[in-house]
Amino acid sequence: MTGLTLTPTWEIYSKQLQLLKEAVPRARRFAFLWNPANPAAPPAVRATEDAARSLRVELQVVSARAAEELEAAFQAMTHARAEALLVIPDAVFLTHGARLADLAIRHHLPTLYGLGDHVKAGGLIAYGQSVRDVYRRAVVYVDKILKGAKPADLPVEQPTKFELAINLKTAKALGLAIPQSLLLRADQVIE
């Protein structure tokens, strides 16, 4: 067995939380939205809790297993006075990206996602592995196998290229000024 994984190392959640804190420097209470039905989620929760402790911010972990639970999750975040939100990459959340973006704006929660598609759907910020780069590298793997390489001899690769995307339309809707230092590092800025 070989291939490429889209599952990032757990350090990415620390980086995402740092970027979100940089975008919303006055925030002290962060929410973390996860899907407990996703087997990759529990280690992500632990990694994000560790990151929150090191950044000395509060973290409220909120779950949603399906689209029907999103509204209640946002109400819980608002009730806990969350000032920003980090969303774990998950199929449920990706499928309902526009709804998540709308809820985040309605509840005035600057949000960072793990996949760039969320920013295209109206989300504020995304930081995560480049899916395009993973596809490009997959072609190299297929080529090697077609040329005779044994899949068992090829290592499973972790993501190596990460992208930062920012949606300035959403920032404006939230009344948020994105720091220039963050904009300069962005791979994609939607205006």
What can you tell me about this protein's structure?
The protein is 45% helix and 19% strand. The chain is α/β, with parallel strands linked by helices and 191 residues long. It has a 7-stranded mixed β-sheet, sandwiched between helices. Strands 1-7 form a two-stranded parallel ribbon. The protein is globular and about 55 Å long. The chain has a single domain, classed as Response regulator (Rossmann fold), CATH 3.40.50. The mean pLDDT is 92. The chain starts with a strand and ends with a strand. The relative contact order is 0.18.
Could you name the key traits of this structure?
7-stranded mixed sheet, 191 residues, 45% helix, alpha/beta, globular, 9 helices, two-stranded parallel sheet, Rossmann fold
